[in-house]
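Field log, afternoon session.

UNIT: design team B
ACTIVITY: writing a sequence onto a fixed backbone
BACKBONE:
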């Protein structure tokens, strides 16, 4: 014979877990049971935890997408008689964690957790957590009442406790819980004209306006971020152009020391040092701070030699004005003593050797 044992919907198991059971879940339960041969689910009374007698066996499971059906076999005659008399009309199932059916429990006074199943009419032991679908609310209520009675006994005594909650009432609630009452459908007691539709529309309008404002502000913020990024990019490009021009002017101004061959290297170092943090260095017995780029410029002017000028040597006709000799190199606004000495020697050499070019004189005295 074929009976309904489960259906789709939201159900609570014996551990209090609530789950929405779907068509796919029913198909998985049926498939898991039908495709295994090691276990036959028994038909039992209630949900026994030990080796209670089996009053029949589940041959196979089927589903129509909404309900799960079990085809039973080898039913005990006395069990069939009990069901015919209405002693066990309701039933509940127990599942292993892999969704394999453990047993079908026929229920007497305890209401099943799965309501709405059609009443039944006749014409390997796994260690696992079980999904037992039955109504545990009355057990919980009975335990609460039991705890309350024990508290009353402790505070007021057994006689006073019996007047409020007797022991037989607690036991009766646990053994014979009441059938759940049918909850009537809610009656629409208000008239359509009682509804404040204007207020609803007003709130809906405000909500739409706020959503629009937020959307517009998000777009405005995005445009603002884009514009700021574009300005930052333009600023960086202009700053890079200015630095390039500044460094090129420095090299051109000091081309006597920074030859065309040295210029790329000097320019690269200037770009690397530009923007570097100040550093502290020793200046005699004191400490001073200096920008790395400015220190590098001073280094180039102080250390790099003047380039040798190749060309026609000065004669009487093209001899430069002796008073027009270049001034000695300066370092940070102060005359470099070594350069001053070299400058004076060059002037003395030019005085002894009239018509000598200043650069040639520098080269001669340096040698």
């Amino acid at each position: 014979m074929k009976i309904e044992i489960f259906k789709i919907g939201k159900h609570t198991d014996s551990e209090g877990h609530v789950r929405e059971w779907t068509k796919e879940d029913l198909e998985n339960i049926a498939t898991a049971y039908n495709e295994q041969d090691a276990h036959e689910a028994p038909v039992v009374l209630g949900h026994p935890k030990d080796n209670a007698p089996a009053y029949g066996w589940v041959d196979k499971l089927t589903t129509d997408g909404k309900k799960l059906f079990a085809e039973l076999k080898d039913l005990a005659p006395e069990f069939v008689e009990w069901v015919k008399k209405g002693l066990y009309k309701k039933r509940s199932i127990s599942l292993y964690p892999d969704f394999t059916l453990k047993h079908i429990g026929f229920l007497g006074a305890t209401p099943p957790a799965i309501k709405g199943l059609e009443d039944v009419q006749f014409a390997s032991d796994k260690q696992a957590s079980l999904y037992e679908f039955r109504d545990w609310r009355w057990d919980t209520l009975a335990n609460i009442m039991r705890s309350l009675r024990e508290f009353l006994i402790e505070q007021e005594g057994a006689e006073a406790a019996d007047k409020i909650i007797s022991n037989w009432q607690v036991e009766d609630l646990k053994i014979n819980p009441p059938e759940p009452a049918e909850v009537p459908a809610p009656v629409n007691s208000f008239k359509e004209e009682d509804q404040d539709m204007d207020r609803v529309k007003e709130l809906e309008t405000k909500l739409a306006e706020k959503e629009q404002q937020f959307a517009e502000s998000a777009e405005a913020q995005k445009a603002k971020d884009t514009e700021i990024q574009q300005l930052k990019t333009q600023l960086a490009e202009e700053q890079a152009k200015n630095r390039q021009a500044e460094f090129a002017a420095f090299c051109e101004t000091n081309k006597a020391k920074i030859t065309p061959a040295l210029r790329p290297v000097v320019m690269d170092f200037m770009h690397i040092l530009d923007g570097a943090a100040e550093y502290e260095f020793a200046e005699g017995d004191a400490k001073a701070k200096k920008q790395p780029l400015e220190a590098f410029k001073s280094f180039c002017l102080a250390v790099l030699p003047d380039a040798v000028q190749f060309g026609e040597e000065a004669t009487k006709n093209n001899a430069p004005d002796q008073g027009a000799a270049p001034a000695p190199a300066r370092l940070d606004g102060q005359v470099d003593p070594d350069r001053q000495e070299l400058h004076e020697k060059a002037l003395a050499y030019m005085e002894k050797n009239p018509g000598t070019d200043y650069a040639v004189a520098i080269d001669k005295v340096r040698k």
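LOG NOTE: The chain has ten helices and 13 strands.
NEXT ACTIVITY: expression trials, pending approval
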